[in-house]
Amino acid sequence: MSNFVVIFLCLLFGYLFRYFKLIKKGGHLAINTWVIYVGLPSIALKYIPQIQWSMDYMYTALLPFLGFGVSYLFFKGLNRWFKFSKRTLYTLIIVAGLSNTSFIGFPLVSTYYGEEFLKVAIVSDQITFFTLSLFGVLLAAGSRNIFDDNNTKYFFILKRLFTFPPFIACLVALLLKDYLKYEVMNEVFTSFASTVSPMALFSIGLQLNFKRISYELNALYVGILVKLLLIPSIALLLFYLLDLNGDFFRVSVFEMSMPCLVASSIIIEKFGLNVKFANTLIGFSIIIGLMLSYLWYSVINTLL
Fold first, then answer.
1. Predicted model pTM
2. For the residues of the chain, what is the DSSP string, one character each?
């Protein structure tokens, strides 16, 4: 129960700090820098050396690709009737197709399943970022040609992937896992890793924006529906039909019920898509996603 109070208060404090202008505009960027460059890498360096790798992780890695694919096919088909603008269509596909597996996912996985299952969440998060960096960028780039040639575009994608600190930390943790298990190092990583949840949630609170509620309501409704109901339902059905049971697989599916990925707004802005709508969709998905989290936890635990 205390974890839910912390989640709510961190979001509330962030929103109130922004509302009363206690932090300057763009102040969340400094917090995100800490989370991305220190907090998330520390989680990877702490938990990845402890992972006993098995084929089960292949199923975890499959789901972010599945979610993005479902989003792409659904919105491409739906656009025959809704006739979204190209900017809004691609924004919907990218934002609704990717889960907030770290900033929201890590705190909720720790709350519902325990910290020992963060190792599953880390794998899900890395594949989610890979999906954004590859398919998200390719899709966004196709909507607007800002690169001189394909080589420049592919270099941009590779640069995003291999300069992302949590990804680098994952590689280091895999290569040097035997040297990262010392107690002193584990205590350091634990201390830094513990900052991720409160700081990430506070940052999200700073960015919550509900000013465009009256605009593009149809797109907002359907984006929430796809992200918080359709994608996790398909993931759950797939694992149910494959008879994949236990907390490991429950966490994998639970991560797909998380709100929209905050980092997707960076790609949306980079390629001149519908940024304001993206931020509105992300904000609403976080609030609604948190309220639905216990429901999804109960359904997933009942069926898997």
1. 0.84
2. -HHHHHHHHHHHHHHHHHHTT-S-TTTHHHHHHHIIIIIHHHHHHHHGGG----THHHHHHHHHHHHHHHHHHHHHHHHHHH---HHHHHHHHHHHTSB-TTTTHHHHHHHHH-GGGHHHHHHHHHHHHHHIIIIIHHHHHHHS--SSSHHHHHHHHHHHHHT-HHHHHHHHHHHSGGGS-SHHHHHHHHHHHTTHHHHHHHHHHHH---TTTTSSHHHHHHHHHIIIIIHHHHHHHHHHHTT--SHHHHHHHHHTTS-B-TTHHHHHHHTT--HHHHHHHHHHHHHHHHHHHHHHHHHHHHH-
